[in-house]
Amino acid sequence: MGEDLKKLIIDYVKKEYLDEDSDQEITENTPLISSGIVDSFSMVSLKTFLEKKFNIKIPDEKATTDAFDTVNNIIKLLGEFVKIDT
Amino acid sequence: MSKQPSNIGSYEERYRNFNWQQSEEELEYGKNGNYNIGYFCSDRICELGFGSKLALIWQGFSGEIKQYTYNDIRTNSNKFAHFLSSLGIKPGERVCIFMDRIPELYISFIGILKAGFIVQPLFSAFGEEALFTRLDDAKTCAILTTRKHLSKVRKIKAQLPALKHIIVLHNEGKPLEKREIEFIMDDYQKIENFPVYKVDKETPSVLHYTSGTTGKPKGALHVHSSIIAQYITTKWVLDLKPDDIYWCTADPGWVTGTSYGIIGPWSLGITQAVYDIGFNTEKWYAFIEKHKITVWYTAPTAIRLLMKEGEAVVKKYNLTCLRHLISVGEPLNAEAVIWSEKVFGLPFHDSYWQTETGSIVISNYPGMKIKPGSMGKAFPGIVAVVVDPKKYEPINTPGSIGLIALKPGWPSMMRAYWNNKETYDNKFKNGWYICGDRAYLDNEGYFWFVGRDDDVINTAGHLVGPFEIESALLEHPAVAESAAVGKPDQVNMEVVKAFVALKPGYKPSNDLELDIMNFIRKKLSPLAMPQEIEFVDSLPKTRSGKIMRRLLRAKEWGEEIGDISTLEND
Questions:
Q1: C-alpha distances out from residue A10 to A2, A3, A15, A25, Å
Q2: Running DSSP on this structure, what letter comes out for residue B445?
Q3: Is B567 helix (H, G, I), strand (E, B) or coil?
Q4: SS3 of B500, please?
Q5: Which residues of B touch A41 (CB under 8 A)?
Q6: Which residues of A touch B514 (CB under 8 A)?
Q7: CA–CA gap between residue A39 and residue A69 (Å, rounded)
Q8: Angle at B238 between CA B346 and CA B318, to 5 degrees
Q9: What is the pLDDT of residue B570?
């Protein structure tokens, strides 16, 4: 699930937050929030996407900009709510 | 850091004896016919002998650092002025800056003014529709952008015949289309001397768009003499001194980012630091420590996010360099003031102003007693009162809620809404400029914010117009009708909530909610994106068919609904 999850998040970020003609590479370690690819407001739609996808509720205190700053950080956060095989 | 006397000294004495002339004299405003903001923020500082002083320390999100002296700002802004003039742009035409917080944003802002054009900064996170609305309204003739944001311009340029020049920075050698031209600041010929365009005090300078309840966003037009107010408020409210390293976290797509992120500090010859990064607690603290920031101007939303991260992280960094903290954008809650005093040893000083006022009009000042949660007192030279919302007469009873009103005539007051005289005229009642915010005065003359007097949503210090969101929502194929209101949010004060009635054949679902959210984010901006969508069968309307946003908003805030006699019976 780990690799699938990584791909799911990366694909979503590319589709929703990058321009169609962008050739920017997104990896599991690419800064998302601090680089401005996803701003703190847009983070809400990413959080909503994950919540709806996994049928979970990420509490506000856990939804920090740091927790969403990379795909790896997001996977770590999700690990608190769903079982992720690595 | 040793405690120095504040620039303002005694607030009461300053207020009693104030005259804007004092600021003009300090600036030598008008000497040798110089009134141009661009001159005062670059050439003049060099003429005063500070050409080698650092004007800008810039850090990118990946850690890259660039530094520019005042002489660099002068010659590089000359390059922009020279290049744009060579395209045949005429004085008074609008030139938009649409890019992230890279050095060229700050430098081109000065260059555009030096060439005599009106600078129109726009927030780089705007989607193509928000961008189109503002460029179309201003009949903007040129836009400076970067490759990163070019695709948004390309999507709308066919509908913008007035937009003759699309200047692309950091193009990285990629193919360009018709009307597009590359500009590389570092590679452009050095322009040692550029004849700064001679303006007078009332020549238009900056066009900032702001949102209202109804209609499209309005372009608040400012003039070059706004610098008289921006200079002295920077000196007295932000308390900037020659050795300070100043950090304003605002994006110049918004008025704080230009009045106090460019004009104010550079007219004073101050070194300012810019961090082109989104919010990140540890990186922000590390930035303060690394560059030894002394004066920090930020927003309540950011402060509340820092509070959320707790005190332990503060202790990891040496932040003793900080000596003065100021906040702007939305009311600063008392808890944030108390928290900052506890963790930084310094209280945040709240300041209040608007795009239309061009400079701070009410504030807490260094040395003045802070009442946590209060907006403070009127800036010297500003006559601020609370007026009755019906007769527009000042209310003299402490604690009585009314509308914040200012006596027109301060130098940085907007001179017009672009091509919108009726709306501009409506801002003035009974000889007062009506800010549109409700407040009360206490018995010591402190203002206390109560709320807005209209449906505009203040989210993280940015005003978002419900009409613009609702119009965009109707463009979504599933949406039949909609209403956008602000709902309470612990961090951002308010966030957008949309009530949506669907067209036949569409059913509410998680996927549809997310799709609508992202639709608005891309079309308008992340700020305008509803953070919650409630699907409803129909919306409450008056008998004349107008959606009663007030009702929906009251429900969100747990307020009394008030008069519903005009509500249509379903």
A1: 12, 11, 9, 10
A2: S
A3: strand
A4: strand
A5: 459-460, 521, 526-527, 529, 531
A6: 45, 48-49, 52
A7: 10
A8: 40
A9: 47
The H-or-E segment that residue B232 falls in is helix B227-236
Distance from CA of A10 to the nearest CA of B (A): 16
Provide the pLDDT for residue B495.
94
Structure tokens at B197: 């365009």
Instruction: Write a three-state SS string for B139-150.
Output: CCCEEEEEHHHH
Residues 52-81 (A) with a CB less than 8 A from some CB of B:
52, 60-61, 64-66, 69
Quickly list DSSP for B259-302.
IIIIIHHHHTT-EEEEEE----HHHHHHHHHHHT--EEEE-HHH
CB within 8 Å: A52 and B276: no
pLDDT attached to residue B330: 84
Task: Determine the Cα–Cα distance for residues B480 and B504; give it in Å rounded to an integer.
Answer: 8
Span B277-295, mean pLDDT?
Answer: 94
Contact B536, B528 (CB under 8 A): no
Contacts of B518 in chain A (CB under 8 A): 16, 45
How far apart are the CA of A85 and the nearest CA of chain B, in angstroms? Answer: 26
User: Residue B450, class by beta-carbon neighbours within 10 Å (0-12 exposed, 13-18 middle, 19+ buried)?
Assistant: middle
pLDDT of residue B564: 67
Which of B151, B510, B518 lies at the smallest CB-CB distance from A20? B151
ipTM metric: 0.88
How far off is chain A from B61, nearest CA to CA, in Å?
Answer: 5
Which pTM was predicted?
0.91
- Closest alpha carbon within chain A to B489: A60
User: Torsions phi, psi of B229, nearest 5?
Assistant: -80, -40
The answer to whether A17 and A23 are in contact (CB under 8 A) is no
Q: Write the CA distances from B253 to B101, B136, B207, B209, B483, integer angstroms.
A: 9, 17, 11, 9, 26
Give, to the nearest 10 degrees, the angle between helix A43-54 and helix A71-78: 40
